Amino acid sequence: MKFFLDTANIEEIRNAAEYGLIDGVTTNPSLVSKEKRPFKDVLLEIARIVDGPISAEVVSTDAAGIVREAYELAGLHNNIVIKIPMIKEGMKALKQLSADGIRTNVTLIFSCNQALIAAKLGATYISPFVGRFDDISEVGMDLVADIARIFSNYQFPTQILVASCRNPLHIREAALSGAHIATMPFTVLEQLLKHPLTDIGLARFLKDWEKVPKTV
Ligand code: E4P
């Protein structure tokens, strides 16, 4: 299972990269807007830190515009993956980009049928948003489990990229469902490492170690 970092913040990406756990990065227009820097500069800097897929989202809502933006972004670096919203025009663009060999991530997936359509049109990744589903009292991870079953039924090569992860349970459930990737904020990555019993156990070991004679 791969871990992607869900941020456009360079400091967070550098910190996370130190763990050696980051297989890729996802961005979206909201995350990029927090950085107050040109989008392309941010993408190129991320590409210098992380050697893996970096999702860059288009903001056009017509197929021709999406394809034009996709080519511009994909031309920046080999690791750029084009994030396309799950809308009709996006799906027209997806068909063309798939045929042209451009890697894509279909975003804002909230139903099995949306995931199925994106897979049929050759998406490299699909991003179901589990946290936003939970926000409206739906069970986001149920959607991921259903998509995993559908993709397995038909052997689709499209990878499930679990997005909008807000806590460690989302990562655990994503792994149990067999999803290929979970993308998470830096705070969640750090939470994954922590367990209070680990901290208590280590403190006890170190305290007991003080009682061990230090000289032979
Ligand atoms: C990543 O691809 C998504 O854009 C992101 O995970 C959305 O997360 P949010 O619902 O917490 O904004």
Protein described:
By secondary structure, the protein is α/β, with parallel strands linked by helices. The chain has an 8-stranded parallel beta barrel with strand order 1-2-3-4-5-6-7-8, surrounded by 7 helices. Helix 6 links the parallel strand 5 and strand 6. Helix 1 packs parallel to helix 3, helix 4 crosses helix 5 and helix 6 runs parallel beside helix 8. It starts with a strand and ends in a 7-residue tail after the last helix. Bound molecules: erythose-4-phosphate.
Could you estimate the helical fraction of the residues in percent?
A: 40-55%
Low-confidence stretches: none
Q: Figure out the total of helices.
A: 11
Order the strands across the largest sheet as they lie in space: 1-2-3-4-5-6-7-8
Largest sheet: 8 strands, parallel, barrel
Mean pLDDT equals 97
How large a portion of the residues is in β-strands, by DSSP E? 15-25%
- Coarse shape: globular
Radius of gyration: 20 Å
Order of H and E elements: EHEHHEHEHEHEHHEHEHH
Ligands, ions, cofactors = erythose-4-phosphate
Terminal Cα span: 47 Å
The computed structural class is alpha/beta
Beta strand count: 8
